[in-house]
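Backbones bend. We report:
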Amino acid sequence: MSPPNPPLVIDTATGLLAGARQVLSPHCDSRPPGATLELIVIHGISLPPGEFGGPWIDRLFTANLPADAPANLRELVGLRVSAHVLVRRDGALTQYAPFGMRAWHAGQSVYRGRAACNDFSIGIELEGTDSIPYTQAQYERLTALAAALIATYPTLSSEHVARHSDIAPGRKTDPGPAFDWTRWRALLAASRTRAP
């Protein structure tokens, strides 16, 4: 059995996650004046669809998809999207935007009657699909990341975590039924009770 991962640490001055691979995206900007972090949004992504581990998520989020990308990615060329953090299948973390910045992850979205979720949320992508089970490493790292965010930013709460499909119903389905929401919520609750 491998040793547990150390707690994740966020630098509040920079909004960067210590130990994460940093691949900063141009697809982010300043949050509106007075906006606070109030929501964590969980997404699912694989590029090409159903494939894991390649360079394409980095390339999409950094505006580097070439015009001669694989055919099933060409419709994404020129798309201006990003997320704050990607959790790979093995639990490795890549950060694309500082947490204080507005990453362009949610698109047209509404949370509890409030539109424009990018303004007040953090977007976390899990490498996966709606139909392939997510890995234990991903559940563990997502739990640690959410717990670190909630501990670092007092305006965030475990009560305000949503799936992309929750805030864009009919438009988005991720992270899909392959993501065990009940299991993950229990892991997050347990991590919060263990916190000092």
Notes: The chain has a mean pLDDT of 94. The longest helix spans residues 136-152. The helical segments are 56-61, 136-152, 164-167, 181-194.
